[in-house]
Design brief:
Layout (H helix, E strand, L loop, with lengths): L5 H11 L1 E3 L9 E3 L26 H12 L1 H4 L3 E5 L5 H8 L4 E5 L3 H13 L7 E4 L9 H6 L9 E6 L5 H18 L2 E6 L3 H4 L1 H6 L4 E10 L2 H6 L5 E9 L1
Parallel strand pairs: 3-4, 3-6, 4-5, 6-7
Antiparallel strand pairs: 1-2, 7-9, 8-9
Length: 244
């Protein structure tokens, strides 16, 4: 597949997504593919952008963003890495909450285009945002994500992850990376998830080589239309992970 330029992708997103605030964060308008969109039931060849996961507001991302907006004092003057930024809702919520610096990271460069568009849609400045499409789980990039937190010893530091735990093998890679950064920088790791199997089932948790404790910080009931769009998940939870 020939991938369009960032400028062409930006124009396509504006033309083909629907502006929606039907979510746990109605104060945020997002350019999305929703049930009301002609693209909802279309075939992959209808979209020139590969796997547009960023065009959906997943339940875990909604819960995580709601938690940030409801607990602004925790994130004021903090430094944040938004891993798998998607539509950018967590980064936007962090800006609204007064974070001092945010790294929006997604290996899909079009997700970063979507994030930038959503910032502009909400009249939010992204001057505090750095954008990166680097894969921080690759060995050659391992130091990049760690170096981001250097020289911020007196500030709160967070890694935010929404809806990243679809697969246990990928989860293992994530846990190893997260532990390394948490051990070095004392970074808090917050996860938004609707109780997908790799994060909650004991059979999975026992097999992971990287061990952690999980503390539930919040649980939100999802609106009916969100449940319909997202395979029947009815709540979104926010956890803090502590590695040992």
């Amino acid at each position: 597949m020939l991938q369009p330029s960032l400028h062409a992708a930006s124009k396509w997103i504006v033309r083909n997504t629907i502006i929606s605030n039907e979510s746990l964060t109605p104060e945020l308008n997002l350019r999305l593919i929703t049930i009301a969109s002609p693209l909802w039931m279309s075939t992959p060849d209808s979209c020139p952008l590969p796997d547009p996961y960023w065009a959906f507001y997943w339940p875990g991302g909604q819960g995580l963003s709601r938690y940030i907006l409801d607990n602004k004092s925790l994130f004021r003057n903090s430094k944040i890495l938004d891993f798998g930024a998607g539509c950018g809702s967590a980064s936007m919520s962090a800006v609204i909450s007064g974070a001092s610096k945010i790294l929006a990271n997604d290996i899909d460069k079009y997700a970063l285009v979507s994030t930038k568009l959503n910032f502009h849609l909400n009249n939010l400045k992204d001057s505090k945002i750095q954008y990166s499409a680097k894969n921080f789980l690759d060995d050659q990039n391992l130091n990049l994500s760690s170096e981001y937190f250097n020289d911020y010893e007196d500030q709160s530091k967070y890694i935010l992850l929404g809806d990243m735990f679809y697969d246990s093998d990928f989860a293992e890679l994530l846990f190893k990376w997260l532990k390394r950064i948490q051990d070095k920088h004392g970074t808090r790791v917050l996860v938004g998830d609707p109780d997908r199997h790799p994060l909650v089932e004991s059979d999975y948790l026992k097999r992971y080589k990287t061990k952690f404790t999980k503390v539930q910080l919040a649980e939100y009931s999802l609106p009916g239309y969100v449940i319909k769009e997202h395979y029947g998940f009815n709540t979104a939870k926010v956890f803090e992970l502590n590695f040992h």
